[in-house]
Design brief:
The protein has 405 residues and is an alpha/beta fold. A hairpin with a 7-residue loop joins β11 and β12. α1 packs across α4, α7 runs antiparallel to α8 and α12 crosses α13. The longest helix has 16 residues. The chain is globular, with a radius of gyration of 22 Å. The two termini are 39 Å apart. The model has no long low-confidence stretch (mean pLDDT 96). Bound molecules: adenosine-5'-diphosphate, aspartic acid (ASP) and magnesium ion. The site of adenosine-5'-diphosphate has 19 residues, from loops. Magnesium ion binds next to loops.
Length: 405
Amino acid sequence: MARIVMKFGGTSVADLERIRNAAARVMRAVEAGDEVAVVVSAMAGATNQLVDWCHELSPLYDAREYDAVVATGEQVTVGLFAIALQTLGVEARSWTGWQIPVSTDGQHGKARIMAIDGAELIRRMQAGQVPVIAGFQGLGPDKRITTLGRGGSDTSAVAVAAAIRADRCDIYTDVDGVYTTDPRLVSKARKLSHITYEEMLELASVGAKVLQTRSVELAMKERVRVQVLSSFTDTPGTLVVDEDEIVEQEIVAGIAYSRDEAKLTVRRVPDRPGVAAAVFGPLAENGINVDMIVQNVSEDGTTDMTFTLNKTELPRARAVLEAMRGEIGYADLAADSDVAKISVVGVGMRSHAGVAGTMFKALAGRGINIQVISTSEIKVSVLIAAEYTELAVRALHTAYGLDVA
Ligand code: ADP
Ligand code: ASP
Ligand code: MG
């Protein structure tokens, strides 16, 4: 007997048929004697629709109300899932974020989980009931509904697993594991039987949507065993593990891409001490995260400062910088949303030189221009024109010898 969390993503609960199938999977685990807590996402497409409605009404929407809207998707699925389980004769009860509660900080739209009291969930599970928990949502310090950022149900699942001291957190999705790159983009992508927490964390943070970054961070910290597997087949999935559990380590574990970022250039800012602080300070104060940063060489006392940020934060970033224009003293702002960030990740980079060189050469060979570069200990990222995303990922996948035979 094991205590497990089974998390089902949007495509796995996209319609009633799929909810029935997922519920049957839970039933089989319960029949096998496992104690199961279920975490679900909104039905596929539901959250996108809710997000679009908010944006359509106002690009500078109130984040508290955005959360009130987008959290509703998961409330539908917990109820439906509980009904589906009950129909199969499994005792089940739905739980929204505030009912547990999943306590978060007050950063609406991208809140962090602070605490989950698992006692009541454990009590119910021991009494034979399956809790069906709404992913993605929590309760902020001001008692308002919060959400955890896109893909946040993964983080809910891992946090619940930690809170109820589960033996395993199984993330059921529409692919049967973590691949060397997005298998929907590259048919030669290879499934990994294991991946290290560190590599998974880095891949997620640069765009591999299969797990939300924070879920990996939390799993690493709380020592939760995470498995990614398909809700449609019974093939073995991918286990996220410590580095010493991997037998043969490749230099590059995988390649990720993100089309979620935009490039913003602040043109002709005075080139003097304090100007970076003047630009990035107000953005940080407004909760806007910036990613890659480059500053051009100075010409006649001014310079261009370019950085990337999440596309959805572009209107807010523009508003913040426009309000500061007098103080910063720049000429104008230029935004480009047609960009993609391509990243190569692997712990082997620590001990092997030449990974970045291989990347630049492969891209040059395809005539792809690199706009911005950034690196970390186990990652190299480049920003390119979005139209070359597929070409670049495929070329790199081949260049690092990752293609399936
Ligand atoms: P869910 O709705 O189940 O949470 P997501 O769409 O969030 O599913 O995540 C699964 C998707 O992640 C896959 O359909 C796949 O296109 C994408 N993906 C990106 N990179 C990878 C990767 N390296 N391995 C597997 N899937 C990946
Ligand atoms: N429904 C939310 C989203 O689409 C959370 C999730 O699916 O993990 O982002
Ligand atoms: Mg997801």
